[in-house]
Amino acid sequence: MRILLSNDDGFDAPGMETLRRIAEALTDDIYVVAPAKEQSGASRSLTLHDPIRLNKFSDREYSVEGTPTDCVMMAMNYLFKDKRPDLVLSGVNRGGNLGEDVLYSGTVAAASEGTLLGVRSVALSQCILDADRIHWDTAAYMAPDIIRKLLESDWHDDVLMNINFPAVEIKDVIGVEITSQGKRDLSNLTIDDRVDARGRDYFWLGYRPSFGNPAVGTDLRTVVDGSVSVTPLSLNLTHQDLASRLSGAFE
């Protein structure tokens, strides 16, 4: 099995080293195409108005001066177009990609692009509550078996898998649950307003590591309770029930 690795934290990010460990437990045919620098929050953006540059480290490892979506597109349609991967793994993200995060996440975007191009794809994220204590070993230890079980299942062509590991040590993980995408009951966005040396205002956007009190069965609740969350995400965003009801109004 040939596996393509990517992420949104950057080629040299700690989560990429964890992702390599995960992939090595599954195969020895591993390729890496990841952003040259951090692209968190890039979502599925494409670089259309600037050149895309490749940095080659070996025949199997490249960084791309672009977005996660750029990386997967370059891998599939240029670098390895003669023999595409069998699986795309994106991550391991530094922090969870839960609830509405999936709409912003570059980690999920790389897996989305892999899915769009016809390859089964998995996004992996390690939740954190303490930035000085990230449990990378939890993801590294649990991910291979979870991925093996997922690969034994039939996936719809427009579905990717979004896996989030709780912010606990391996011994404290309760289990693995199949979940639905949740929605936070509070905003964890922070806007830090500052003034530069020339007296002009500028701002930093950031997020607090908080979960609120999410609904049972959602990805948010599952990781709060100490289990691994596995959420199948569909690329087709159509609300079918409402579409059916609205069609009558326009006949």
Write the SSE topology:
Blueprint: E1 2-6, H1 14-24, E2 29-35, E3 54-58, E4 61-64, H2 68-79, E5 87-94, H3 101-104, H4 106-116, E6 120-126, H5 136-151, E7 159-165, E8 176-178, E9 189-195, E10 201-207, H6 219-224, E11 228-234, H7 240-249
Parallel strand pairs: 1-2, 1-5, 2-4, 5-6, 6-7, 8-11
Antiparallel strand pairs: 3-4, 7-11, 9-10
Q: Which structural class matches the secondary elements? A: alpha/beta
* Helix-strand topology string: EHEEEHEHHEHEEEEHEH
What are the low-pLDDT stretches, counting only 5+ consecutive residues below 50?
Answer: none
CATH topology: Stationary-phase Survival Protein Sure Homolog, Chain: A
- Tally of DSSP β-strands: 11
Quaternary form: single chain
Mean pLDDT: 94
The Cα radius of gyration reads 19 Å
Strand order of the largest sheet: 3-4-2-1-5-6-7-11-8
Instruction: Work out the count of structural domains.
Output: 1
Please state roughly what percent of the residues sit in beta strands, choosing from under 5%, 5-15%, 15-25%, 25-35%, 35-45% or over 45%: 25-35%
Q: Based on Cα principal axes, name the global outline.
A: globular
Count of helical segments?
Answer: 7
CATH class: Alpha Beta
The CATH homologous superfamily name equals: Survival protein SurE-like phosphatase/nucleotidase
Distance between the first and last residues' Cα:
50 Å
> Major beta sheet, specifics?
9 strands, mixed
Q: Tell me which CATH architecture applies here.
A: 3-Layer(aba) Sandwich
Helix proportion: 25-40%
